[in-house]
């Protein structure tokens, strides 16, 4: 890379650290660190939710699928998320917000101890944390792949560099730093994506390339589904992403919790949903056109990086690279904050009784230490990502398949329709889903559709079925569900001086 590119990337890293240090002044309590004190405006919550939902995997593994198969990757990889978040905007966003505002919950799993019991809470906490280690490791490896193609930086050093910068600002500034850097990253990534789109359209002969490109690509590249990514996979992905992106990925639940009220939480979710449906098309169009511009490359996963280094002048290459970094760093920093919340609020008090009586300063120290340990562990695992199935293998086969069993009790446990499903249904559905995955993937070497769909469908059947066949109705459960279900908020109103008065 040219010196101008390194200056651009270095400036980006410095900006992230500065934002993290500035955010430090806004973090005085554990609530500030994990939920921004419930003061995050809806537009920032929505953009942060969006930016925290995908990473450099988009520019590596997904770019590879776009190169070989076309637009199918948009439908199951992005549109499914937009639909799922849209569903969550009226089903889950307000409930997550009320958990914080009415029950004082700071961790996405904190309410499970009362909704079900401590063993259920711990089973979901430990299994979910373990899964996120591998999920984030795949993200580190993806961004290291980009850095290797762009600048020849060894994979291990790529992981260390991006991980260390992320660790600084997310440890110091908590959720405020995550959200504010998400916004800065969104602006940088938007500029980079528009630059890349403009260059590609210029290569295709102008704006008309948006529709003429499809005449020269194989007809199959316009199919929403393929023999591998079937209609069943697409439909299951909508179900999986509805659960995953509305709380199954704990960091995204925090964005709903951080909003001032339920109205703002829903607005933020709707903004994120629209961004997922529209914005990926801007970023992915160069990936769809790549077979025409750089045909017959040996590794399709490198398509986006090759186009960037081939077509963009010095300085703009660094800008695009910074935009790619932004996705991974946004997701990982928010994941680290959520995992830290689960460790310090849910796991540590069970393992160490003294943790229940932490002062605010002790709680903040524990949160920051657990964040450091978690991120360093994911970086170590990232160095072994290829041995674990590669980026797409981890993200699709591991995370997508195993997220369902963890998410089903967590999300459905909030809804009145499933108040009869207690701790027995939660634990059995969780264990049943994991066993179903092991049988499908390792026992029968099943297809992608079967591997992804079986765990979540088994978990759903067990959680719902046991709730009706062996109900565990408790007064405490009813009280929690009724509290977070009661929509007694009103829309924000305008005061006489024109300012907004929260509900």
What is the compact description of this entry?
This is Na+:solute symporter. With 503 residues, the protein is mainly α.
Q: How does this model look, in words?
A:
The protein is mostly helical and 503 residues long. It has one domain: Up-down Bundle (Sodium/glucose cotransporter). Helix content is 75%, strand content 1%. It has helices at 3-23, 30-35, 42-51, 61-69, 72-91, 93-103, 112-115, 118-151, 155-203, 209-216, 231-248, 250-258, 262-293, 303-311, 316-351, 360-382, 390-412, 423-443, 448-469, 475-485, and strands spanning 493-494, 500-501. A two-stranded antiparallel ribbon has the order 1-2. It is found in: Cell membrane.
Could you list some keywords that capture this structure?
Na+:solute symporter, two-stranded antiparallel ribbon, sodium, Sodium/glucose cotransporter, mainly alpha, transmembrane, about 500 residues, ion transport
Write the H/E string, N to C.
HHHHHHHHHHHHHHHHHHHHEE
Largest sheet: spatial strand order = 1-2
The tally of beta strands, per DSSP, is 2
Indicate the percent of residues in helices: over 70%
Largest sheet: 2 strands, antiparallel
Structural class, from secondary structure content? mainly alpha
Task: Indicate the CATH topology.
Answer: Sodium/glucose cotransporter
Count of alpha/pi helices: 20
How large is the share of residues in beta strands? under 5%
The structural domain count equals 1
**What is the CATH superfamily classification?**
Sodium/glucose cotransporter
CATH class assignment: Mainly Alpha
Rg, Cα atoms, Å:
22 Å
Mean pLDDT: 81
Question: Tell me, what's the shape?
Answer: globular
Give the CA-CA distance, first to last residue.
52 Å
Which CATH architecture?
Answer: Up-down Bundle
| Uncertain stretches of 5 or more adjacent residues | 489-503
